[in-house]
Amino acid sequence: MNSLRFEGKGFEYFKIHFVNVILTILSLSFLYPWAKVREFKFLCSSTSLADQPFTFTGTTREFFKGYFKTFLVILFIFLLSIAGGILISMYINTIFSTVIYSVTMIVCLAISYFFIPIILHGSLNYRFNNTSWGDIKPIYTGKLSELVPLYFTSIVLSTLTLGIYNAWYQVKMAKYLLSNFRFGSLRFDFSGDAKTLFFIFLKNGFLTLITCGIYGIWFAKKLYEYSVNNMWSKKTTRNLTCIQTPTPWKFLR
Predict the structure, then answer these.
(1) Is residue 249 part of a domain?
(2) Number of structural domains found in the chain
(3) In angstroms, rounded to a whole number, what is the distance separating the alpha carbons of residues 92 and 85?
């Protein structure tokens, strides 16, 4: 049977993750690229399709290039925040302090929101370009010029609607990413309904509050079912769908 299987051991992954966290902290995050590549290789080698494992050929050096750019942007935002704080202290108790604070916050948020889709786009390209299953490589065909406005518009609308638009954003993003994913002759798409997702979020908000967080287990189950069961792939003229019916207790393992 041509099933997709993950055979990694939890304790094995824990050891890798634990060492990665310690080294990342001790190296002030400079060993983070090495740690992530190590994780990618473990996850790929532990995942198989039709009993053939995936392989990951990405290098730390290649990952570090993208990570260093991200580090510079974060450093710039940090320094900008400090500069804004110094100026605010210089003009404290004046109207200028409010103006400086507002401008600093807007600029920092704008840079952050603009850069997040760039990180996502680069990460997808890096992972897919370095992952293979035999002679087949998964391909991501999305364009940064499409992803940035999609993300930015969704953030603005989610803010204006106090988070209500988030469900529509999640569905749009899922449709965009899956429709731009190729695996050999397989094409993918997402058929989820934003209204259904909205009520899943709404129900979670009420029940998690009432149950002091216990409902989070059922919410994870519902979200997983919704995500997987609305994915479908197409090979020539044949549509293939994913069906999952996990129990809430599986999310405690």
Answers:
(1) no
(2) 1
(3) 10
